[in-house]
Amino acid sequence: MDFKTELNKRVDYIENIIYSSLIDSSKSNSDKQAEIYEAMNYSVQSGGKRLRPMLMLETSRLFHGRDEDVSYFLTVIELIHTYSLVHDDLEAMDNDEYRRGRKTTHAVYGEAMGVLCGDALLNYAFEMGLKGIKAAKDKDRALDALDYIATKAGAFGMIGGQVVDIKNENSDIDIETLDYINELKTGALIEASMVAGAILAGATKQEVQSIEKIASNVGKAFQIQDDILDVTSTTEVLGKPVLSDEKNNKSTYVTLLGIEAASEKVKQLSEEAILILRELNEDNVFLTELIHHLVYRKK
Predict the structure, then answer these.
(1) Cα–Cα distance between 263 and 140 in angstroms, integer?
(2) Percent of the chain having pLDDT more than 90?
(3) 14, 31, 89, 244: which one has the fewest Cβ atoms less than 10 Å from its Cβ?
(4) Pair 106, 114: CB distance under 8 Å
(5) How far apart are CA 13 and CA 123, in angstroms?
(6) CB 177 within 8 Å of CB 252
(7) Mean pLDDT calculated for residue range 62-73
(8) Any idea what DSSP says for residue 297?
(9) First to last CA, the chain
(10) What is the C-alpha to C-alpha distance for residues 118 and 112, in angstroms, rounded to an integer?
(11) What pLDDT score does 241 carry?
């Protein structure tokens, strides 16, 4: 298998689904709020790995799910992820002007429109989720998937992690607190992606629990690698400012343990995730390669 070719195929497949659901601002010139459509589209179409919908799709395929049953939810998870980035870049948060190599949403459309754009993307995500339930062959599975996504995106998941992260800026924190932040802030949406894919495909309760553990490890490893790259990479390679953790006085695995120990933690988490995946006795070579690719990425 040529992993890079297969990866690009999946990105194209996912983006075709996501982009087809976007509001066509060119057909909305009579709408006084047309600028919000433009800002939403700008944010979604700014590139990215499409990691979360890809993990959802491949987890569904792992359990022999149908692609059409997961398609609406690919859009749901990417819209939620995109809204979180739009808000993350705001002046009140990380105050970043570049992401993925181009101006952030608030840098182009203004601070107020950045807030409203994030709000609109989150609301639109759940509009898509409800459409997914209506269209689902198995509505109970679709409802359970959206329920899980909603919980992981909110105060018990991603938002909760963001809160703890902000409250601990300019503070010395321990590894346990850092793990807690990473589990929620980054891991929650990765868990939502993979678990929703498993639920939609009809995985058993035990299989779903295994997927949740895999996703938890992947999320933690992904964040630690992000922390490493923030120190070792460049703005040109990453497409966003480096040393942002230092600028915002945030504790990371790198600041607490050093690069070598942080890299060892990435290895430990990823190897455990792949071991659990193999124990499921389901074959998805691409998913295994994808996990390895994500946690050892260079950008």
Answers:
(1) 41
(2) 70
(3) 31
(4) yes
(5) 24
(6) no
(7) 97
(8) -
(9) 22
(10) 10
(11) 52
C-alpha span between 56 and 285 (Å, rounded): 15
Better-scored residue on pLDDT, 239 or 78? 78
Q: What does the buried/exposed string (b/e) look like for 5-39 if buried means 16 or more CB atoms within 10 Å of the residue's CB?
A: eebeebbebbbebbeebebebeeeeeeeeebbbbb
Phi, psi of 103 (to 5 degrees): -60, 140
Distance CA 52, CA 193 (A): 6
For residues 103 and 245, the answer to whether their CB atoms sit within 8 Å is: no
- Residue 287 CB burial class (10 angstroms; 0-12, 13-18, ≥19): buried
Selected residue with higher pLDDT from 30 and 58:
58
pLDDT digits (tens, 9 = 90+) for 85-119: 999 999 988 888 888 788 999 999 999 999 999 99
Q: Closest by alpha carbon to 53, among 209, 196, 236?
A: 196
pLDDT band (50, 70, 90) for residue 47: confident
3-state secondary structure of 68: helix
Q: Could you tell me the pLDDT band of residue 237, with boundaries at 50, 70 and 90?
A: very low
Between CA 121 and CA 118 the distance in angstroms is: 5
H-helix segments, the chain: 3-20, 34-44, 51-62, 67-88, 105-109, 111-135, 139-153, 158-167, 175-185, 187-201, 205-232, 235-238, 244-247, 253-257, 259-279, 285-295
